[in-house]
Amino acid sequence: MPSGDYGRYNAPVQNPSYTAPAPVQTLPTTTPPRAAPVQQPYAPPPAPVVPAANSNYTPPPAVPAPKSGSGDRGTERNPAGNRLSDDGVVTSAAAKRAAAPASSALAPSNDPMEQAVNGAIGAVGPGDTLGINIMGTGGAQARVTIDADGQVVVPMLGNLRVAGLTPAAIGKRIEQGLRGKGLMTDPQVAVEVLTLRSRIVSVLGQVERPGRYPIEGHLSVLELLAMAGGASGGAGDVATLVRREGGGNQRINLYVGNRQSPSQTVQDTELQPGDVVFVPEAPRFYVYGEVGKPGAYPVEQGLNIMRALSLAGGLTPRASDSRIDINRTDVLTGEVTEKRVKMTDAVKPGDVIHVNERIF
Question: Residue 325: inside a domain, yes or no?
Fold first, then answer.
C-alpha cells in the first residue's frame, strides 16, 4: 500500500465482500528426465565344454564370417570391389578369373550356331587356301593350303590339323599353341579363307549361269538357283538333286517352281559339299495346223486337247474341230503312233497335235 500523504489520500477503497483470486500456477517447460535403464547383474560367459576322451561328442560346424557389402558387388556381373567368399577369405572377381583353369572356349566347337557367328565360312577342308597373319612382336604371315590329311604348316608351330574348323577356331588354336610353347605372350591371329575348294556344289541345266559355287555357311537349293541367276524360261518345275552317299549316287526330285501348279508347295533342302543340282527343260507338247499360234508349249497338270488348243490361240475359221490328230512317240521303243482325238483326251509330254482344215 502506498505510504506517506500520497498513500493516505489515494488509498484504494476495498469492498468487504471482495475476495482476491488465487495465484495461477505456471506449468514446467522442461521435459522430465528419462528413467535410467535397469542394470542387469553381470553374468560371465559359460565355459567351453571339453568332451571326455571316450565320448561321442561332435563340435558344431564353424559359422562363416558374415559377408560385407550388398547386392552383386564384386561378382562377375559387377566386378567392382571385393567380396567375402564362403570361406571368409577376401577374393576379388579378377583374381578368381585369373586363378580359374583355362577356358574350354579355346577348343574348337562343332556347334552350327557358333560356326555361323564366328564367320561366313562354316568349316574348311582339304584343298582350301588360308591366309594366316600372326600379329605382335616376332609375328609372321603365311599363305598355306590344307593338305589331304587336313593339316597346314603354321609359322613357329609346324603342322597343325585344321580340317573341320572355322577360321575363328583356327586362329584361337594357333594363339593357344603360341602361348603354350612360350613363343609369344599375347598373340593376335587372324585367319582368312582365300580359296574355298572343299565345299563346292554344282548346278547344271536350264539356269542362267550354270557352274560350281562355294558353300559359305549354309546354302539351300533355292539359294543356289538364285546365285546361278534363276531358272531360264524353258526350265521345268522339278529339279533333280544328285548326292553321293555310301559309295553311290542318290537322286532326289525337288519341286522348285509353281508355274504349272501354283497350289503345290515349293520344296527346299540344304546342300552338302559335292551335291549336283540339275534343272531339266520343261516337258512340252507341239501344235501346228489351223490354230492361231502354232508352236511348243509346256505341259501342265491335267492338260487336255481343249486346253492345249486354247494355249495355241484357238482354232482358225478354216479349222475342223472333228479332224484333230495327235502323234505320240513311245519313250521305250521309239515307235510313233497317230490317232484321231477328241477335245477331252489327255495330252502327254512330246505329243504333236495337228488341226486339219475343213473339207467344206
Answer: yes
